[in-house]
Each structure stands twice: as structure tokens, then as C-alpha cells.
From TrEMBL:
All residue ranges annotated as the RRM domain in the record: 9-88, 161-235
Key words, A-Z: mRNA processing, mRNA splicing, Nucleus, Repeat, Ribonucleoprotein, RNA-binding, Spliceosome
Pfam families named in the record: RRM_1
Record SUPFAM superfamilies: RNA-binding domain, RBD
Location(s) in or outside the cell: Nucleus
Family, as annotated: Belongs to the RRM U1 A/B'' family.
Cited PANTHER family: U1 SMALL NUCLEAR RIBONUCLEOPROTEIN A/U2 SMALL NUCLEAR RIBONUCLEOPROTEIN B (PTHR10501)
A cellular-component GO term for this protein: spliceosomal complex
Organism: Macrostomum lignano
Biological processes per GO annotation: mRNA processing; RNA splicing
Gene Ontology MF terms in the entry: RNA binding
Domain of life assignment: Eukaryota
Protein name per Swiss-Prot or TrEMBL: U2 small nuclear ribonucleoprotein B
């Protein structure tokens, strides 16, 4: 049997849903893994050989270890993720260590670092604006001109099974929020508001289940500087 790789900054993920588009996949992976620590890069590939696989590169090994331990078997787009530490350093970590060696293009999908070659140009552009988080924040939709809701102005409502989410970043979407909340028992659905990306509703079967999700994710940052505000919704909000 192959020996398990030692702890690495990079987490290798397989058994991902191959039908999910790359951009959607990267945003959703960022949303659920950023809770464990700073993410330096998320690597996916267009090639059929690497479909259903991804690499999440953390700033430190402790964050990566926590992610592997906590998310093993996590249901993600209807499939259970399988996590392990990568066998080689990603490009960004190798450059930090001073061990980076340029690899032939033909080997682009053979290793973690080479897998990153598929998105090298995008990573360079993102790095110039502050990295992955800045790149995600730059994904503005037409609704970016919307008037944001001040989370502090929302009065507390009596507990019920529907949650009201505010202070969401422009990159948030239905799939990303579904992945984030589906880990909680009793989850029913996410309801986005047409023309808005900064607010959403999440419904659970009971108010006990919605309260657990609220307490667990209130203040969670999908992106830096965007702590999500969760309150109970008014009855029959939409």
C-alpha cells in the first residue's frame, strides 16, 4: 500500500461533482474552506483526467490539517469529498521555500504544482490585486450598484425556521450558500432575492435547526471584510 503523504500546506480533494463548472467550484470551495485559515490558492483543471479533483493551498499546515480532519466525507454538491494531503508542494509554497522548479508543459496535470499551470495567468492577475480573495471580490455583477443593507439596522425577530442573511459579498450565489448551509441538519433550501447578491433567505425544517445554523455561521466570512450577518426572518418574508 502507498504510504500516506505527510502534512502539507496543500489539501488534495477528490470525488467532486464533475458537472460543476470550474468557477462555481472554486467559489464554493473557497466558501467552505476559508473557515479553517487563509487560503493562498485553489487549483482546478480543465482536463478530463483531473475532473472531479481540486487542490486547496493554505497559508499554514495547521489550517490544512484542520480542514482534512473536519471536512473528510463532507457532502459537497451531492457527493462526499475525499481529502488527503498533497504529495508535493504547490507552486506558491515551493516558491516560498525556494524549491520551485519550472516543469515541462506536458507534465502540467501530473502534480499539484503542475496542475496550477492551468490557472497560472489567472493567479498572476489575482496576485496583483491582493490574491484570491481580491479576485473573488472583483467578481462584480450588475447588481453591484444596489444599495447595501446596514446589518446593524435589522431588528431581531422571534426565532423561526427561516434565516435572513445580509452583508454577503458580490460573489455569493445560490450554489455557494447551499454548500455552506447543507452541513446542518434540517436544511431545506436557499432563496436568493432577484437582482440582489448581498442578501438571501435560508429555510430549515424547524426553528431549533435554524437556530443551530444561525449560531454556528453568524459572523462567518465568505470573503475577508464581509462577516455574514444572520438574523431570523420575519414570518413569510417572500
Amino acid at each position: 500500500a502507498m504510504e500516506a503523504p505527510p502534512i502539507n500546506n496543500t489539501v488534495y480533494i477528490r470525488n467532486l461533482n464533475e458537472k460543476i463548472k470550474r468557477d462555481e467550484l472554486k467559489k464554493s470551495l473557497y466558501a467552505i474552506f476559508s473557515q479553517f485559515g487563509q487560503i493562498l490558492d485553489i487549483i482546478t483543471s480543465r482536463t478530463m483526467k483531473m475532473k472531479g479533483q481540486a487542490f486547496v493551498v493554505f497559508n499554514d499546515q495547521a489550517s490544512a490539517a484542520n480542514a482534512v480532519r473536519s471536512m473528510q466525507g463532507f457532502p459537497f454538491f451531492e457527493k462526499s469529498m475525499m481529502l488527503a494531503f498533497a504529495r508535493t508542494d504547490s507552486d506558491v509554497i515551493a516558491k516560498r521555500k525556494g524549491t520551485f522548479v519550472e516543469r515541462p508543459k506536458r507534465l502540467a496535470t501530473a502534480t499539484v504544482a503542475a496542475s496550477g499551470k492551468d490557472s497560472r495567468k489567472k493567479r498572476k492577475a489575482a496576485a496583483g490585486k491582493g490574491g484570491l480573495a481580491a479576485a473573488a471580490a472583483a467578481l462584480k455583477s450588475e447588481s453591484s450598484a444596489q444599495q447595501p443593507i446596514d446589518p446593524s439596522s435589522i431588528p431581531e425577530q422571534p426565532p423561526n425556521q427561516i434565516l435572513f442573511l445580509t452583508n454577503l459579498p458580490a460573489s455569493s450565489n445560490h450554489a455557494m450558500l447551499t454548500v455552506l448551509f447543507t452541513q446542518f441538519a434540517g436544511f431545506k433550501e436557499v432563496r436568493m432575492v432577484p437582482g440582489r447578491t448581498d442578501i438571501a433567505f435560508v429555510e430549515f425544517n424547524t426553528e431549533v435547526e435554524s437556530t443551530h445554523a444561525k449560531n454556528s455561521l453568524n459572523g462567518f466570512c465568505i470573503e475577508p471584510e464581509y462577516p455574514m450577518r444572520i438574523t431570523f426572518a420575519k414570518k413569510n418574508p417572500i
